Amino acid sequence: MLGDVLAWLGDHPQAFETAASRHIALSATALAAAMMLALPLALVLVRWHRAAGPVIASVNVLRTIPSLALLAAALPLVGTGFLPSVIALTLYGLPAILINTHTALREIDADVVEAGQGQGMTDRQVMRRIRIPLGLPVIFAGIRTAAVQIVSAATLAAFIGGGGLGELITAGMGTLNIAQLVLGGLAVAALAMATELLFAGLEWSVRRSTGAAA
Amino acid sequence: MIRLEAVSKTFPGAPRPAVDRLDLDVPDGTTCVLIGPSGCGKTTTMRIVNRLIEPSAGRIVVEGQDVTHVDAVELRRRIGYVIQQVGLFPHMTIAQNVATVPQLLGWPAPRIAQRVEEMLALVGLEPAQFLDRYPRHLSGGQRQRVGVARALAADPPVMLMDEPFGAVDPIVRAGLQAELLGILRRLAKTVIFVTHDIDEAIRMGDLVAIMKDGRLVQCASPEALLSAPKDSFVADFVGADRALKRLTLSTAGEAATSAPAGASAPVVSPATSLRDLLSLLLAAGADAAAVVDAGGTPLGSVSLATIRERAAARKA
Fold first, then answer.
1. Which residues of chain A lie closer than 8 angstroms to B119, CB-CB?
2. Residue A133 main-chain phi, psi, to 5 deg
3. pTM for the complete prediction?
């Protein structure tokens, strides 16, 4: 079996490379977009308590939608291809980053925050010098969760013409090419694990450099 | 100088004010201890001074300036602030923690570095050993010392201290109290100090302000409070042993008379409190003790009669 998979890979290096690089591009773009949306939004919600409840609740609803359903629902709204896939994947990764960041910034030890305010820090300085550095490990954990979710869900982008490693699986399924199908599956699994390891390493170094949470 | 004029605070939805038309005057260079049962409004009162809590009514005057409506952030940089849980920033070194306010004030780096070392030395922490460590490496007592150094760093004329020794064990606490008292006296700081421990209040305060239900019941020197409690609430609060507590306010050196103590009399140093001296006399079955200084020079004696005289409640 593994021999068949390797044989197929040897015959179609170009197809594999295209699918893999597309998968990485989809995931990286979606993760970057999710971070660019969720991180500032979390900062705003920490200051603007009253909006936090409803926003977090609606984002949680987003979280319960299965990834395939999200991609399918995006289809009539934004069409097919790379961009629609990125949009759907961004929405898929958003909740983990937003919720973790919001929690991380909110739940800093009240005494430490009070000490900062009592010494004469402005709200902005409390945010920059206390909340963000102390919240960083938890924020990073959210980014890690989102990254792995996005890499896994990007497999489904093939269903709406987004390409990626899912293409190998759907194509293999269609033509009953088991070797191609298994290769796609293994590659997605490997990529998800590599992502997990990479971000775990980053998170570990952040934890160490902030020195706090230990 | 800190003055509160008819200050009130009612929290939204609260049935009664947490602080109710409170007047308080803390003269320059003195320490005023706020004390009372929990919920009496002592911490709220203290936090009104640096406007961590905005008063509902009244006027706050610090160093002659009405600060009721000035920029609160700028005000807080002029007021040292120490809290019970210390609130050191766990992700910053001891040096960075102590540098907080000078940095916010935009001092040049060399001046901050020098100041940080001075402050650590002042609170009894060897700078070379502590500068680069993190709060989690320190004991509770050491953290509280850093908290005091941080509050003093920008040399604020006024300090607020909220149960600063509440989280350290009794033995460490006694030492810290004595050191802090020395530092505050030497630097002539004007201090509001919150505690729920009457012994600490008597030891630390030039003035002790007893609060109940958001109001000031009595504000007086420890001596006056113990000898002439205004009502039964104050009398109960300072405790049935208030005569003994008063004895802690005087030392053998102050009470010594020239009467001879007798050959077998116990010997004490002039710094011994009369309370400890009384205990010693009772234990030794003696009538008087000889007071002798560190150099061995006799300073006189203290007899049970002298102590009784001192302990008798004078009409203030």
1. none
2. -60, -40
3. 0.82
From chain B, the residues in CB contact with A212 under 8 A are: 90-91
Find out whether A64 and A1 touch, Cβ atoms under 8 Å: no
Q: Which is it for strands B190-194 and B207-212: parallel, antiparallel or unpaired?
A: unpaired
Q: How many CB pairs under 8 A join A and B?
A: 65
How far does the CA of residue A136 sit from the closest CA of chain B (Å)? Answer: 11
**Rounded Cα–Cα distance for residues A184 and A19 (Å):** 9
Is A115 an interface residue toward B (CB < 8 Å)?
A: yes
- The answer, for A116 touching chain B at a CB cutoff of 8 Å, is yes
- Sequence-distant (6+) residues with CB within 8 A of B187 are B152, B155
For residues A154 and A67, what is the distance between their CA atoms, to the nearest angstrom? 9
Report the distance separating Cα A100 and Cα A149, nearest Å: 14
Distance CA A137, CA B145 (A): 29
pLDDT per residue as tens digits for the range B233-244: 999 998 888 888
- ipTM of the modeled complex: 0.82
- Give the gap in angstroms from C-alpha A125 to the nearest C-alpha of chain B: 9
Please check whether residue B71 is in contact with residue A120, taking contact to mean a CB–CB distance below 8 angstroms. Answer: no
Q: Which of B155, B154, B152, B156 has its CA nearest to residue B164?
A: B152
Query: What tens digit of pLDDT does each residue of B91-128 get?
Result: 999 999 999 999 999 999 999 999 999 999 999 999 99
Distance from CA of A57 to the nearest CA of B (A): 27
| DSSP reduced 3-state for B7 | strand
Chain B hits for A130, CB-CB cut-off 8 Å, are 89
Two tokens, residue B45: 């009162």
B21 vs A41: CA distance, rounded Å: 42
Rounded distance, CA A77 to CA A82, Å?
14
Asked whether the beta carbons of A62 and A91 are under 8 A apart, the reply is: yes
SS3 B82: strand
Contact residues, chain A, for B163 at CB < 8 Å: none
- Facing residues of B80 across strands? B159
Instruction: Say whether B87 and A120 touch across the interface (CB within 8 A).
Output: no
